[in-house]
Request: fold
Amino acid sequence: MINADFVLMPIFAGRMNKRSKGTKMEKVFIKEFKNGENIATIFILNRKEVKRTKTDKLYAEFTLIDKTGKIEARLWDNVEKYANKAETGDVVLVEGSVVEFRDEKQIKVDSLKKMSDGTFDYGDLVRVVEGRDDLFKKVSTYLSEIKNPWLKALVESFLLDTDFVKRFCDGVGAKSWHNAYIGGLLEHTYDVMTIVDKACSLYPEADRDMALFGAFLHDTGKIYELDEKKMEYTIEGGLIGHIVIGYKMLVKRMESIKDFPKDLAMRMEHIILSHHGEYEQQSPVLPKTLEATIVYHADELVSQANAIKEIKRAQGGEGKEWSNFITIKNRKYFIRDTKEESWDNSPA
Reply:
């Protein structure tokens, strides 16, 4: 039986933090870039688009990431020579200069090439959540409190699967918007479970076991949707998506438990399928139970709050008041630290 003392195997000392053999190039991080400086450093290529200007001149747009953030880049010359040197998910060496465009730092690219394994350290490129063992134990503690015997059997099915646990704890929460780093899926799941637990205390009419387990399950499909090392969608993720992947994972495990109640199965499937909340957010169905509604809103709150926190982390400081324009949300965020405001000083 899984309980709160479930001990996670030392699965985190592997490929993300281990340095490969070979000569490494010294990494210069995005957070440290200064306007006007020349750079020659490595990134993960997160996005690539080849376009034409109004005058039909070929150019390329890139989004580059490392563990401190992301930056947009433009290649104006020798596009045909360099644009096809790498694809999204590849680690690339970029040479160029840091420029400012509409109050945002960008890179004017002079050259770009794909790097070979052994010439870089993924620890420089991909951010990793520290203390994942403790975080997973907290998730396990929540799951150990589930009393429904059918759901307890499902909990054991997931947590005794060491491959699932490793993927779950290595997984990223999203490609770019929230918790987009190694361990982000685990971190996001714990936060959602915490909010769901509080909500069920306020609304005792909700079935806490179903809601809490639904919070644990809601994004598990992301372990196959996203490649945590390349920060890119897998083929399965791109074609099917994490909602359907997670739904299939759940159905398969419920079918392995003899006589699993049909009504309970349907309610759990509904939580997974409706957790995006709206058709416009690619939700196959809308939340139609109290438990599904709680999971959806907890997921939405945690996702948006984490995303804004990350915007403040990456773009805040130095007296900056507004973030860059966030296209996905059609707004800028006010990110000035309250410590810079006069009311924050306590009266004498």
The domain at 30-123 is CATH 2.40.50.140 (OB fold (Dihydrolipoamide Acetyltransferase, E2P)). Strands lie at 38-52, 58-66, 69-75, 91-101, 104-114, 226-227, 232-233.
